[in-house]
Amino acid sequence: MATGTLRRILAILALTTIAVAQAPSRIQADISAGNLATLRWPNFRDYQPWLQKFYEPGGFAAVWVQGGGPSPQARAMIDQFRNAWMKGLEPEDYDASRWDGRLSALQGAGADPADFDVALTVCTMRYVSDLRIGRINPKHLKFDLDVKDKKYDLAQFVRDKLLTASDVSAVINSVEPQFDGYRRAQQALVRYTELARADDGEKLPAPGKPIDPGQSYAGVARLARFLKLVGDLPPDAQSPGSDTYDASLSEGVKRFQRRHGLDDDGRLGPSTVKQMNVPLADRVRQLQLTLERWRWLPEGFTAPPIIVNIPDFRLRAFDENNKIALEMGVVVGKAMRTQTPVFTRDMTFIVLRPYWNVPPGIFARTILPAIRKDRGYVAAKRFEITTQDGKVVTSGAVCQILAPGRDRDFMSHPLFSPFQLRSVTFPNRVGVSPMCQYSAEDGFANDWHLVHLGCRAQGGAGLVMLEASAVVPEGRISSSDLGIWKDQHIPALERIASFIHSQGARAGIQLAHAGRKASVTAPFRGERLLTAEEGAWTPVAPSPISFSPRRAMPRALDRPGIDAIVAAFAQAAHRALTAGFDLVEIHAAHGYLLHEFFSPLANQRTDAYGGSLENRIRLALQVVDAVRSEWPEHLPLSVRISATDWAEGGWTIDDSVELARALRGRGVDIIDVSSGGMVPDAKVPVAPGYQVPFAARIRAEAGIPTIAVGMITEPTQANAIIEGGQADFVLLAREMLRDPYWPLHAEAALSEPASWPQQYLRAAPPYSPARSPVEQPTGSLTAARL
Question: Does the pTM exceed 0.85?
Fold first, then answer.
């Protein structure tokens, strides 16, 4: 052989070697990038470690290509991708429409298999993972199902099971749940996909009342076509020649009703027609979701499983071969946020013939009306009704126990149980927090306050608290604050309290002095200092320390000034009693006057009102004593505090516990626990329920009931606070502004029976009782008139 020829052969061999060496490096580069632009979903970083582990043992060489073309296993996987719809998956998630182009490119001269190979591996791993554990992690839906134990080592599975498989389809089938129900759902999916393509989508006319066999129905022709299409009528069934709903159609309807969990009476009623009018494409989607849920189930069980199909209201017990051995109906909770939980656990014991506590919603809608109609209903249905102390009530006494207004004895959520302080019973434990409206003139309440507070009483709150009401004009935050410093304020306040009572709620009022944070405009007017023309005044405080550089320098209170403020609180309490309020709250929080005396950040006095904790709380205790002297023993007294200043060197939760103990000994019945407001630069970790732990600690360590406030928005959240013993009551602020009817909506969400204003009963759930007014407290104007 000529030397030149030999050199050319060697050169070709060298170039071939270089080309082969370059392919693995290209694959490695694709994996390192974690992104392949030719994929439908280019980013595959969540699979990057698996690809690295998969290709590394082979030096990052292509594995799906043989002889310049795809291996049989590669073609089989591509067929799987194209038919992914038959398994409830979306074929395009695995590039179904892109493989023809990739296969053609692979056959071309000089084709580089790297991108083809990586794309096929990524799609295969995605496909296997989706079939194995589902596309969605059930934890994201708050289901207590854990799929992590089902996960494969994808690199090992693809390399050991699929690359050399003689039957790829069988390997893929082994990945999926091995339940008959899953296989039946797959078969139904294929069938309903074909039916959806064949159906014309015509809607059946909704009947006003059920159609019986022999009656006329305008949709008979469509009904017959539909029942044949879905298999509930034989394909050769004779088409109807008239609009008569005949016996053969009724039999087909019965079959449809049985398949959809309806009463199989053969009558063509609104509920049956509604189900028939569900688009078949929607049924396809339901089946796709059903397959997804099957994939969340554990692969293996320590014993034959019991599976509850929640939408189907059925329980099925399986044997060792995953065959159904027992089947029965179950009761399922459907109310918002209180649904039957989704979980998997090992069953360690079973209770036969257990007591079943009737859910409040079922009790209110079904059982309570039946009891009122038939005193023998309880005995006939073998129900037991007990009082709160566990005493069984006989059927003869049931109607007396269930007299209007006593239905709440049967509340299952403590949030909506009654709460009593002294002689006052609050119908539930949800209240409207005092929120400044900055809408008064010279301290007088007006129509805005009546409507604002009145509609929240209509909404079902157990306590409606009026905003901070200044005990002296100089105690206002702004010139638009509500006031209670003169007797002329009483009639407007009495009007509000009276309306709140008419809606079955209790009325509270917060007595306040703004201290150094006074004499500014309303927040929605810029919250700047008032001018002299606007009636500005000099704020007072324990020490001449301003709240911020933008606020006025306050004047330090002397002893006569302190005494005058103590007397003003007492006079305000007397006016609150005359106006008909059930509860008075002293505002000692949020950086206002009494709180300023508490905190070393605002109080640098050296007299009896500064220095030690005992001295700094002295004024608050004097105010409490003065208020209690005017506020009768039979009515409750609250104090709102900031549990912490959220600032170094300020008031702390330890101080708050000591204060609460002292307040309890002075006749305070409950502590309203907030926080902050002392300095403008406090670092407050605002989050849902962020102040609740303070209320819990004060309740536990000071031995006094507490109110929780701050970022409480959800019914289950509020109920958990009460149920967990963290507080005895919750007040909602911004959430009540967003939804004045929050208590009614919360009761519905928790399936609790609720009373409604009688004017609104037409919109209330069935059997909702009309709300009854509460009595006016002794000492009020209204009570005096009565």
Answer: no
